[in-house]
Design a protein that fits this description.
20% strand, Riboflavin_kinase_bac/euk, alpha+beta, flavoprotein
């Protein structure tokens, strides 16, 4: 049986590698579950893909995205820490 957890998901690609990816970030989760199968449900889009001039700009935006996702889940009563 599965466990529902709030996530942020990036769908896009790596221009230099010419591949598409979907990267899932489980909010407030610190266990290593790489190479495990998960299923996700998409319920809200935060923003379109964007090119950043620097790694610092990307990191700043990722923190904003995480904050917005947490606010969304808290507002809708979805909050789970394991």
């Amino acid at each position: 049986m599965g466990v529902s957890m709030p996530i942020a998901l990036k769908i896009g690609g790596y221009i230099l590698l010419d591949i598409g990816v979907a990267e899932t970030y489980i909010l407030d989760f610190e266990k290593n579950i790489y190479d495990r199968w998960i299923s996700v449900s998409l319920i809200k889009k935060i923003r379109n893909n964007k090119k950043f001039p620097s790694a610092k700009g990307l990191i700043i935006q990722m923190k904003k995205d995480e904050s917005e996702a947490k606010k969304y889940f808290e507002y809708h009563g979805v909050s789970r820490k394991l």
